[in-house]
Amino acid sequence: MSHAALPSLLLIGCGKMGGAMLEGWLEQGVEQVVVVEPYAGATAAFAGRVTTVDSVEKVPAGFSPAAIILATKPQQAEAALPGCARFAQAGALFISVMAGKTVAGMTGMLGGDARVVRAMPNTPAAVRQGFTCCFAGEGVTTVQKALADALLSAVGEVAWVEDEGLIDPVTAVSGGGPAYVFLLAEVLEQAAISQGLPKDLARRMARRTVAGSGALLAASELDAAQLRINVTSPKGTTERALNVLMAPDAWPKLMEEAIAAATARSRELAG
Ligand SMILES: NC(=O)C1=CN([C@@H]2O[C@H](COP(=O)(O)OP(=O)(O)OC[C@H]3O[C@@H](n4cnc5c(N)ncnc54)[C@H](O)[C@@H]3O)[C@@H](O)[C@H]2O)C=CC1
Ligand SMILES: O=C(O)[C@@H]1CCC=N1
């Protein structure tokens, strides 16, 4: 009998997000993983640790996964999902991380009775620091919901919503959120260079400042606003910078617009 922490999984699509979660699951210990991935380069990092096939038809006949993780691009769903219908008939749990794709849209491709959890993770899952927000479709059992929770908890923090429509703003905020934070590191580095700092030093400073601030935020019970105030000496240097960043048309408004744009795109991807 296996002592792996997690049960057998079938991963459909091992790109940036599927690969990030797989890294976390393997670190935790999985009974067996079969990966369906047509692009060999995507699975190179997992050689010897998982079984890889290039199409779902080639999944070994006797393999009976507890969950099938759908991690292709939304635009690749029509090609990838119909071949998974045989697992739906067997009552398996599907966990889709695809942006936009609704439970109704997916059951349409998998067969009407497919049990689908929509999950919106993010790439810090690769270092088990992810955040995933989930919605359980009709027919998902309590045991299957607990399995989805366990799998996603293995790569970070998990939350559930009862309203599927909330997954669209979740996609915009926490799904894409790491990109906005990485952009912050990029522009901070550029600004440092503009003030005459050498490139290597600018890069180190920007990366460590963003990563260290994230670690402080994670470790602290204080609000982000209070942590910001703690840096900001009255009439000091940070105050001058924040007067620029927090101006009415600056970051607060830009972030509102950015999140609204991403939420709208998530709704479009349903189609
Ligand atoms: N990248 C991210 O930060 C996040 C991505 N997502 C979602 O995860 C999904 C994947 O995104 P990424 O990993 O960024 O894209 P990606 O392009 O890196 O990965 C998709 C993978 O699916 C493979 N694939 C294509 N057709 C396939 C098929 N028929 N069967 C099996 N595999 C197939 C591709 O070769 C590729 O490796 C998307 O639906 C996205 O909305 C969700 C949250 C965050
Ligand atoms: O950009 C995207 O569409 C996906 C969903 C959230 C992060 N990446």
How would you portray this structure in words?
It is a single chain. Helix 7 packs across helix 12 (251-269) and helix 8 packs across helix 9 (199-219). Helix 1 links the parallel strand 1 (9-12) and strand 2. The protein folds into two domains: 9-168, 3-Layer(aba) Sandwich (Rossmann fold), CATH 3.40.50.720; 177-269, ProC C-terminal domain-like (ProC C-terminal domain-like fold, Orthogonal Bundle). The chain has an eight-stranded mixed sheet with strand order 3-2-1-4-5-6-7-8, sandwiched between helices. The protein is built from twelve helices and eight strands. By secondary structure, the protein is of the alpha/beta class. The longest helix is centred in the C-terminal third of the chain and has 21 residues, at 199-219. Bound molecules: 1,4-dihydronicotinamide adenine dinucleotide and (2S)-3,4-dihydro-2H-pyrrole-2-carboxylic acid (A1CAB). It is an enzyme of class 1 (oxidoreductase). It comes from Teichococcus aerophilus. Its EC number is 1.5.1.2. This is Pyrroline-5-carboxylate reductase. It catalyses: L-proline + NADP(+) = (S)-1-pyrroline-5-carboxylate + NADPH + 2 H(+); L-proline + NAD(+) = (S)-1-pyrroline-5-carboxylate + NADH + 2 H(+).
Produce a short descriptive summary.
With 271 residues, the chain is an alpha/beta fold. It contains 12 helices and 8 strands. α6 (142-153) links the parallel β7 and β8.
Q: What attributes characterize this protein structure?
A:
271 residues; alpha/beta; Rossmann fold; ProC C-terminal domain-like fold; 12 helices; binds 1,4-dihydronicotinamide adenine dinucleotide; binds (2S)-3,4-dihydro-2H-pyrrole-2-carboxylic acid; pyrroline-5-carboxylate reductase activity; NAD(P)-bd_dom_sf; proline biosynthesis; P5C_Rdtase_cat_N
